[in-house]
Amino acid sequence: MIAVELGGLFIVGWSLRLLQPSIKGMTGEWKVRQALSWQKATALNDVIIADDRGLTQIDHLVLTPAGIVVLETKNYGGKLYDRGRKRPWTQYIGKQQNQIHNPLDQNYRHRKALAFLVPGVPLLDFVVLAGSGRFAGVVPQGVLTISELNRKICELNALGSVPESLQDAWHTLQPAAHTDSATRRAHLRSIPGGTEAIWRSGAGKWGLLLGVAMVVAGIV
């Protein structure tokens, strides 16, 4: 029985490593959802919409009196450095250096897709740093921390009621914002590393269930 328990613990550890990228991303998005919920914001979370390049995933859309806010959430750690628009960010965690795809460029694509769906509607886009990562130099325009996001949404909502034209645009947008698993898989297959992400997620979840079952069986 000890061998079964140890085998289960090994599988649990292996599964958690597979799921680590997903867990990290979901944790960051959960923090932003909590912030939006605290603000009683009207929001759509983790949606996929079509654009001229296929499908694109948007972390959060928020309806405010000033327009629709587009949020890209990043749960980064370490020190961050901006090298200009359309260039990667540099991340330092200790002595390790990583080049990160510029999320401001990601949000630019999201904004273009929304502008096609609801033309003429004011759009505001921000990247939210939900982790411990902070810029060591100048913070790029359009980048917020969670606390700064709270202040920004509060500031926008203080402008008054949402105009009818924006409410109409929001109702138009909702059916185009997909959350079903089939669309999610199609989106993942269309991006680099997406097929691997699908495999990691499936294997990680099943492995976690199997590992926990083995640990329980070993204890009992």
UniProtKB/TrEMBL annotation:
InterPro entries: NERD. Residues 24-137 form the NERD domain. This is NERD domain-containing protein. It comes from Acidithiobacillus ferrivorans. The lineage of its organism: Bacteria, Pseudomonadati, Pseudomonadota, Acidithiobacillia, Acidithiobacillales.
